[in-house]
Amino acid sequence: MIFEQLFDTKSSTYTYVISSGKGREALIIDPVIEHTEEYIKVLDKLELKLVKVLDTHIHADHITGLNELSKRTACSKVMGEKSKSEVIDLKVKDDDEINIENIKLKTIYTPGHTDCSYSYLMNDRVFTGDTLLINGTGRTDFQNGSAHEAYDSLFGKLLKLPEETLVYPAHDYNGKKHSTIGNEKNNNPRLQVSSKEEYAEIMDNLNLANPKMMDVAVPANLKGLTLKELGN
Questions:
Q1: DSSP letter, residue 34
Q2: How confident is the model at residue 232 (pLDDT cuts 50, 70, 90)?
Q3: Is the pTM of this model over 0.85?
């Protein structure tokens, strides 16, 4: 299997390139528009055909490369059915499967960070977007976020996966590349709570500033802007 984890230093975003092997179909998760050429070079080097690109949710801290990659490669754009993006080709539901050549991802609806947050389970690993981070969890104070829904997504879905399941988030701010469900369950400070109310109290009192790119990124991602449309 080909598994490339790429990093955007500006937004601390992880992007994932996945394929069952050289010369086969590929998919990309959570691309950042400024790195489109880098993704294309990875695809060309490994002789991969990009057939699907997906975002875990509407991002507020960077502009997605989803539509730009589709323009360049004719791949399908995939997001969860709750997404308000105007450019999606395939909207998946909870418990749906996303398939490319010899690769399957199971869709898990995990709202809370936003109302359109989805995670994707692939064999021994899960791509958690901003719902579950390494030693943290995604904030719940904008884009129809909800601390109570986040608690249900975490404790009712993600933390019920096998403890050895690898966790690959959409962001990390401390240089960590992955974790496991067991490690997060036992050591993530946000998850050491005894009730939904206790979790909500923590999340509702973070008092974080809005992401610097939020006013630009959210409308751009809803419209699926390309580099040309951004003036680049």
A1: G
A2: low
A3: yes
| Three-state DSSP state, 215 | helix
167: left (phi over 0), alpha (psi -120 to 50) or beta: beta
Q: Is there a contact between 195 and 33 (Cβ–Cβ < 8 Å)? A: no
| DSSP secondary structure, 65-76, as one string | SHHHHHHHH-PE
Distance of CA 219 to the CA centre of its chain: 18
What is the strand order of the sheet 13-19 is part of? Answer: 2-8, 13-19, 25-29, 49-54, 76-80, 90-92
When pLDDT is averaged across residues 195-222 and rounded to a whole number, the result is 92
Residue 212, pLDDT score: 84
10 Å CB burial of residue 205 (0-12, 13-18, 19+) is exposed
Burial of residue 68, with CB atoms counted within 10 A of its CB: 0-12 exposed, 13-18 middle, 19 or more buried: buried
- Angle CA(22)–CA(24)–CA(28) in degrees, nearest 5? 95
**β-strand partners of 7:** 14
Cα separation, 203 vs 146, whole angstroms: 9
- As a whole number of Å, the end-to-end CA separation of the chain is 34
Domains of the chain, with CATH numbers? 2-223 (3.60.15.10)
pLDDT tens by residue, 162-205: 999 999 999 999 999 999 999 999 999 999 999 999 999 999 99
